[in-house]
Each structure stands twice: as C-alpha cells, then as structure tokens.
Amino acid sequence: xxxxxxxxxxxxxxxxxxxxxxxxxxxxxxxxxxxxxxxxxxxxxxxxxxxxxxxxxxxxxxxxxxxxxxxxxxxxxxxxxxxxxxxxxxxxxxxxxxxxxxxxxxxxxxxxxxxxxxxxxxxxxxxxxxxxxxxxxxxxxxxxxxxxxxxxxxxxxxxxxxxxxxxxxxxxxxxxxxxxxxxxxxxxxxxxxxxxxxxxxxxxxxxxxxxxxxxxxxxxxxxxxxxxxxxxxxxxxxxxxxxxxxxx
Amino acid sequence: xxxxxxxxxxxxxxxxxxxxxxxxxxxxxxxxxxxxxxxxxxxxxxxxxxxxxxxxxxxxxxxxxxxxxxxxxxxxxxxxxxxxxxxxxxxxxxxxxxxxxxxxxxxxxxxxxxxxxxxxxxxxxxxxxxxxxxx
Lengths: 248, 135
Description:
Structural class of chain B: mainly alpha
Strand content of chain A: 5-15%
Low-confidence stretches of chain A: none
Largest interface: A-B, 39 and 27 residues
Order of helices and strands of chain B: HHHEEH
Low-confidence stretches of chain B: none
Mean pLDDT of chain A: 93
Number of strands of chain A: 7
Radius of gyration of chain B: 23 Å
CATH architecture of the largest domain in chain A: Orthogonal Bundle
Oligomer: heterodimer
Largest sheet of chain B: 2 strands, antiparallel
Number of strands of chain B: 2
Shape of chain A: elongated
Structural class of chain A: alpha+beta
Order of helices and strands of chain A: EEHEEEEEHHHHHHHH
CATH class of the largest domain in chain A: Mainly Alpha
Strand order of the largest sheet of chain B: 1-2
Number of domains of chain A: 2
Distance between the termini of chain B: 73 Å
Mean pLDDT of chain B: 89
C-alpha cells in the first residue's frame, strides 16, 4: 500500500469566507490510523488552524462525527486504509450550520433533546434508602436505545431533518422511547404530546438511514415506528374511552 | 427560555439540493419506495375499470380486454407490476422494525413477523392464480 494519502478537508472561516472550500493535505497512510488521526496530524504538522471536535477517540464521547466521502461517520472509528488510495473527503456533518472548518452548531439538537424529557420521571419518588429494582428482561426492553452517545450522525443522515429543521429527529425520539420503556419511569404521558405532534414521530417517513449510520446500533428508525404504533393505540383509546385514556 | 443560538458567531447554512435523493443509493431506494404508491393506485384504477366493464356485460368486457393488449398499456402494467412487488417486499421487510413484540422477555426475531406476511402473500396469490387459470 502506498504510504501517503490525500485528505480533502472543508475549510470555513466565518470572519473571512462567504462559503466553505476544500483544502488538500497529504498525510502518512498507516494501517492503524483512523481519519481522526489524520486530522490531528494535519493540525500538528501541516496547518494548526484546522478546527474540529474530538475527545475520547474510542467511540464513546460522540464528538468527532463528520462526513467522510459523503457518509456520516465517527472519524475515530473510520480507518484511513479503507479509503486507500484516496483521496478522502472530510466535511462537516450535513444538516447543521457550520461554525468553522469541521465544527458544527449543535444547539438545535440540544434544545430538541431536552424537550423530549430524556430522564426518569416519577410521580412520587421513593425514599433515598429504597431502591428501584429491575429485572434483566426489564433492562433488555430499553437497553438498545440507551446506547445512544448523542453523536448526531442520525441527524446528518436524515433527509427529513435536512428539509424540515422543525422535525424532532431520530436521537431525541429514540431517547424519549428509551425512558418510556424503562420500568422505573412514569413519564410516558408527559412525553406523548411532544412526540405525537406533527414535527415529532409523524414527521418521519422511515427513510431508515439514521439506523444505518448509527455507530452504536441504537436503531432510531425502529424506535420511531414503534412509537407511532404506541401513539396510534393511545389515540384509539382516547376515542373509545374519552376519560382516563392514559395507559398508566 | 434563553435562545442558545442568539449569541453564536456567523455560521454557514448549506441549502439541501433539490436532487438530494440522487446523492446516495439508500435515498434513491427510499424515493422509489414512496413513488411505488402511484403504481399501486394505478392498479386500483385498472381493477375498478375492469369491474365496471364486467358489470356492463360481455361486449364491454371484451373491449376492455382489447384495451389491455395495447403495447403501451402492457409496458405500463409491466413497470407497475415491478413497483407493486417492490412496494410489497419493502413493506414486509419494514414491518418487523415497527413491531417490537416480546415473548417471555425476548424480542421476536424479524423473520417471525415478516415470515407470516410472506406466507400469506404466497398463499393468497396462489389461490387467485388457481381461480383465474383453472379454466
């Protein structure tokens, strides 16, 4: 294998540039290097002004999501050698405003995430010296959705979010579902209004790419479709039993 | 509530291309899946016209059959058949995603939900074929 590879990296300086451009950098091609290693090599040796987010470099923190050759990827888990002989195009995550180079503005996601109330809601809290027991089966009911690391690759892959920024989006809905399915949680009816509105689950047309690009196998597309069933059942119940329709 | 984007510096907002669905095969497949509903609707129209012709008597029905043999219509119906099959297969394959059925603490495998759909499809198709072709 050739020992060097070219990276085409998006550059955007909000103080000087009207729109982003691509800069090419040649970096060593090493078997054990991921795209993030190449970006760090550029920053250390070729151009210190290159800006990008990263932290854990082991697929846990969810900071280093970017678009690699058109596909949303965690750059810490994307090997350079898979793209040899190159060039490899590294762009910021799609569907988000670009602040600088590869850094995007994630505020919109954070607002949406908090709206779906991704925490355990209790009507009455147990005293501090009592525990909330959970069987392995009860854990299994939501565990897959709890693996989300908020990397937002699903938002970058979702054409609905790209076209309609009001859409709640895959991760926020999957995380709401994670708490809805938790046996310790009593907040499902609190989340129903925000999830079942037009820009919630019904915005989703089941493209399914969120699930394809998810690095943690969360399956947000599945979570949304399953919640559509739940919301429909709640709606039917509210027709049949106008009072006390809530399943809780 | 404080708007968290209010004090951010200038940023670049890329416009989504009108042809975004051509950028990846997965997106194109999604658009074809959605477009397949047009062909499903077309088959519904053909079936309704067929029933109307049948109700009007043998002469009308013969004329209807003659109309169906038009090469343009044959081509359209061949394309429609392809899309209706595509529609059915993608629907059956997506069904297990939407239905998370748990039995004795374990989630049913996809095949347990998609399988009966396929079996019903084959059985009903075979029954229809038998009724139509036996004479």
